[in-house]
Amino acid sequence: MAVTPRKLSMKQRYSALTRDLDWEPSYVDPEKVFPYTAFEGIKIHDWSKWEDPFRLTVDAYYKYQAEKDKRLYAVLDGAAQSQGHLSLSDARYLNAMKLFLQGVTPLEYQAHRNFAFLARHLNGPGPRFAALCQSVDELRHTQTEIHTLSTYNKYYGGFHSWNTMHDRVWYLSVPKSYFDDALSAGPFEFLIAIGFSFEYLLTNLLFVPFMSGASFNGDLPTMTFGFSAQSDESRHMTLGLEAIKFLLEQDEANVPIVQAWIDKWFWRGYRVTALIAQMLDYMLPRKVMSWKEAFELYFEEQMLNGLFPDLEFYGIRPPRHVQQAIDEKETLSHQVYWVLHQFSFAAAFTTSVPGAEDQQWLAANYPDTFEKYYKPLWDKAQRVVDGGGRFFYPGLPQLCQVCQIPMLFTEPGDPTTICQRSSEYKGERFDFCSDGCQWVFEREPEKYVQAWLPVHQIYQGNCGGPSVPEVLAWYGIQDGDGGEYTGSADNTNWERWHSGAPVGS
């Protein structure tokens, strides 16, 4: 008698297609099969307790992503065919997208590689499959970002050679050093670094407010890929939270280890967001949300007041140095853009003195700091421009040993004094931009003494030569990519395209 097969429920089908395909090794030592999940000190007693935040099978996952890709590439084709780049608010907006392509896109690919590594080397089938999905997500993000921004490369400088720039250019060592740090850590620390800090803190502040800014500035392709990616980022954030809870629930001895990682990676991620801060406040011609407002909403309200009360149950407190980050929200973007403005002759984007309307917006959003501390700097830079010059810094800046940002941050509570800390290790002095970076260094000094600091490498002759043109050639930066926006090739062509005059006339 034939037996009618019982139809599985969605939960049973998911389990059959993922976890039930796992097996216990019988003729090979499990420690040799999974050699990377023991040395960090984390104790895992039962891998089956891992709860998958998004229960997707492979067929459902690829169908879902393929539908998103169809919508995205339809938008890209339409924008390319209709000369959509001419509908942007201003060519200055593209400076932010140059920084995005150079700084963020290579990070997506690095995340893809290491999540693929975790998909092989995590012991349990649940986290392995989750890591596999995220690995494919990150590769898709890399591809869609490249395809979206490649159209702009036909018309504007600074979009070329972005992968070479990511490995070499001084300001891009900031995001690169973050991922180099994470990739050289163990698998559990990597999950905290990326799933918690990068996804919860950095991409939340980048993909939501900044992609709204893309829409507000007429960049439909970037807005579309940003929100397409953000639907994946929500799953990644949930995966990061599940990783934290799983580790904390497995053994009480994991709590102090996880807490130290949260402390470290909060500060490392926060320092990388300094680049996002100035993108929101200075690089968008049409402002949509200030850095201060975005930080208060997406970090203070949603993360600090939403996530950490839940983690308190497990014995986790808010990150070390969090109050300093909160205090810096009034000054962060202004300090970073001021330094980028001084060194944009060695960058693959242009900068300019904020106009009167921009300064009014900044004063309204930063009433306690902008006019008092930063407007005088821009007035000084404008006087130089009015005299036919340009305010550039003639030397090389000192870099923080950990975050690799130039020493631009100020003492807590004193926006007029540059903050500088130092520690000695094996008879050598190392300098830091903050108490947070000094604390990170002193936990693992043998790791950070190996940092590849661009300024040091230039002085050592490892960056193409001793002169600025030789260094820029080694970077891959061409004439017209950086410097002052006014008079740049981007600005000149932009004005001709919109006046109807032929380019080159």
TrEMBL record:
One Pfam family recorded for the sequence: YHS
First-tier enzyme category under EC: oxidoreductase
Keyword Cytoplasm belongs to the record: no
Catalysed reaction, written as an equation: propane + NADH + O2 + H(+) = propan-2-ol + NAD(+) + H2O
Coiled coil feature spans: none
SUPFAM superfamilies linked to this entry: Ferritin-like
Domain YHS positions: 410-452
Renumbered residue ranges of the record's region Disordered: 486-505
UniProt-listed Enzyme Commission number(s): 1.14.13.227
Keywords assigned by UniProt, alphabetized: Monooxygenase, Oxidoreductase
Record flagged with keyword Thylakoid: no
Identification of the protein by name: propane 2-monooxygenase
Organism of provenance: Streptomyces caeni
